[in-house]
Amino acid sequence: MVEDLKQMDLDYVLHTYARDYTHFVKGSGARLFDKSGRDYIDFGSGIAVCSVGHGNERLAKALSEQAYNLIHTSNLYCIEPQVRLAKKLVELSGYDMRVFFANSGAEANEGALKIARKFGEELGKIKRYQIITLDSSFHGRTISTLKATAQNKMHHYFGPYPDGFVYAKNLAEIPHKVSNITCAVLLELVQGEGGITPLDREEILHLEKFLKEKNILFMVDEVQTGIYRSGELFASRKYGINPDVITTAKGLGGGVPIGAVMTTLKDIFVAGDHGSTFGGNFLSTRAGLEVLEILEEEKSSGRLDTKIECFSVKLQNLQKTYPEIFIEEVGLGLMRGLRMRNLDTLENLLKNAKQNQVLILKSGKNTARFLPPLTITLEEIEEGFKRLERAIRDLKL
Ligand SMILES: Cc1ncc(COP(=O)(O)O)c(C=O)c1O
């Protein structure tokens, strides 16, 4: 059966992913089960998506009830859970913003790019359209967000790209890249694909001040860091900044596709400027509401902070026990990494971890990435680390 599926996948699905052909059939909490019943501790959450774990009863019930009632009517009409989710996101964030709902992170970022371009248009005589992004960033796979992604290795084949993206090596270089046609800076506070290193808080505060003075939009891509992944609803709060635009996606729907762009420029768009057929429909926004409720409880009960502390200490201990393998522990909240000395060892660690029934990810060139469900239990963390340690001991150095 699994073999048949693999062949069918190869025959009928475009080959955009280097797939592992493990065939998961069930999930419960932070555990995934394959066809033979083997359980895996999921320290990846489907790349930061399954924020409330697998088989979450509350989410399943909310979705089922919503599906029996209404899934979609289009944005031509008022959508109650959409309105409620927008209100909840704004109130929980503490930012005075309005929200547009899309279906993915890339689409949320497309919305941000359009906000920046319209802002640049409305400012004055010269059209300001340049957007500065950071080296090693990742903002999505659409033509514009791919160009916003400052990794030239990803830009082969698909040009010509839209004009107006400028790359800075680091935060200090941003002011030097600003010109009279710069309208925005877009960055991740912790680069998800670029190595899990949180940007320096003082430098970010300094940049915010600089951008405000220059009337340049500060746009934060919280597609991966958002929805409590950092320990707060948005990492921007942890940094103490007030961005003009925030985008988010991954964890918001707990696996149901949804993205959102939020902005303080409440009247930037008028009817017809932007839209999406599916964006913000009943099903995805009902999912978002339930996910936020579950995660609010996780946060306010103190459980989330306890788990963050526990996870981080366990990673630090691994680094101390195996300094010949790991350079340092990095990250924020439950978005963490172990920087490794050797690239081949990282590939082997990923394989060994899988064999030992714990799923981890890679970030950048040399970082093992950990993005467990935010509802993971202390028992699941304990069990995951036992398996991880076995995987490390099995490594052939
Ligand atoms: C920071 C960031 N932005 C944007 C995206 C793109 O999101 P999506 O794959 O939902 O389009 C990702 C996906 O990994 C991401 O990590």
The run of helices and strands is: HEEEHHHEHEHEHEHEHEEHHEEHEEEH
- Summed up, the helix count is 13
Give the distinct bound molecules. pyridoxal-5'-phosphate
- Let me know the CATH homologous superfamily of the domain at 79-300: Type I PLP-dependent aspartate aminotransferase-like (Major domain)
The backbone outline, from C-alpha atoms, is: globular
CATH architectural type of the domain at 79-300: 3-Layer(aba) Sandwich
Taking all Cα atoms into account, the compactness measure Rg is: 21 Å
Gap between N and C termini, in Å?
A: 36 Å
Percentage of β-strand residues? 15-25%
Average per-residue pLDDT, rounded, comes to 96
Here the CATH topology of the domain at 79-300 equals Aspartate Aminotransferase, domain 2
Main-sheet strand order equals 4-10-9-8-7-5-6
Q: Class of the domain at 79-300, according to the CATH hierarchy?
A: Alpha Beta
Major sheet description: 7 strands, mixed
Portion of residues within helices: 25-40%
List keywords for this structure.
397 residues; alpha/beta; Aspartate Aminotransferase, domain 2; seven-stranded mixed β-sheet; 13 helices; 15 strands; 40% helix; globular; binds pyridoxal-5'-phosphate
